[in-house]
């Protein structure tokens, strides 16, 4: 059986004491679901692993169910394979090599997001901050960091359509996930 390398991106865990998911427990859950070579990165819900399952949505659903059963609360999960993660990093429209990791972010979406969703934003009003849409991803350049970004706040108000999951990672994490899913 062919195995593929994946990353699981958990949304909104271990923030402000809410939805605590210890990384050791996350590794145990993924291993218990039959996935191999399980590793986690940081405490913010990033896991890399291999699996014989080829359907990202099936893997995500299984992990979502296991988390809710184990911890008693729901957590949105996106699963992406190495090829996709690498393509997102390679397609960055900003000069990533010249920026600090805290200045560049990628929001991963569970489905494509229409640019019309953000048409009401006046990009000039947020300069020097900028964003660009990619393949189920949004790239955000925020020179003062995400926490101070007015554009990030405006983008969140124009969030994707109901039913679309979105989770954001800084550029350092984007690159680390590519590295962790190399096999």
Account of the protein in words:
- The chain has 183 residues and is an alpha+beta fold.
- The chain folds into 2 domains: 81 residues, 2-Layer Sandwich (Alpha-Beta Plaits); 79 residues, Alpha-Beta Plaits.
- The chain is built from 5 helices and 8 strands; from the N terminus they run βαββαβαβββαβα.
- It has a 4-stranded antiparallel sheet with strand order 2-3-1-4, with helices on both faces. A 4-stranded antiparallel sheet has the order 6-7-5-8.
- α3 runs antiparallel to α5.
Q: How are the elements arranged and paired?
A:
Elements: E1 4-10, H1 23-32, E2 36-41, E3 46-51, H2 56-71, E4 77-81, H3 82-90, E5 104-109, E6 130-134, E7 137-141, H4 150-157, E8 166-170, H5 171-180
Antiparallel strand pairs: 1-3, 1-4, 2-3, 5-7, 5-8, 6-7
Helix pairs in contact: 3-5
* Number of separate domains: 2
CATH topology category name of the largest domain: Alpha-Beta Plaits
Q: What structural class is derived from the secondary structure elements?
A: alpha+beta
Please indicate the percent range of residues in DSSP E strands (runs of 2 or more): 15-25%
Helices and strands, in order, run as EHEEHEHEEEHEH
Helix share, percent:
25-40%
Radius of gyration: 16 Å
CATH class of the largest domain: Alpha Beta
Terminal Cα span? 15 Å
Count of helical regions? 5
Q: What do we call the CATH homologous superfamily of the largest domain?
A: SP0830-like domains
Task: Tell me the major beta sheet.
Answer: 4 strands, antiparallel
The CATH architecture of the largest domain can be named as 2-Layer Sandwich
Protein name: DUF1697 domain-containing protein
């Amino acid at each position: 059986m062919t195995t593929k390398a994946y990353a699981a991106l958990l949304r909104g865990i271990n923030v402000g004491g809410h939805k605590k998911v210890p990384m050791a427990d996350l590794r145990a859950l993924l291993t218990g679901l039959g996935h191999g070579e399980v590793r986690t990165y940081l405490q913010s819900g990033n896991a890399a692993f291999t699996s014989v399952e080829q359907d990202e949505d099936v893997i995500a659903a299984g992990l979502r169910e296991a988390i809710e059963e184990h911890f008693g609360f729901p957590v949105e999960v996106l699963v992406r394979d190495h090829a996709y993660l690498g393509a997102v990093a390679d397609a960055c429209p900003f000069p990533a090599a010249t920026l600090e990791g805290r200045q560049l972010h990628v929001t991963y979406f569970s489905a494509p997001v229409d640019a019309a969703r953000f048409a009401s934003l006046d990009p000039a009003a947020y300069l020097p901050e900028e964003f660009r849409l990619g393949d189920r991803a949004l790239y955000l350049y925020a020179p003062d960091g995400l926490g101070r970004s007015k554009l990030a706040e405006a983008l969140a108000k124009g969030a994707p359509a109901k039913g679309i999951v979105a989770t954001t990672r800084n550029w350092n994490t984007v690159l680390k996930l590519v590295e962790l899913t190399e096999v």
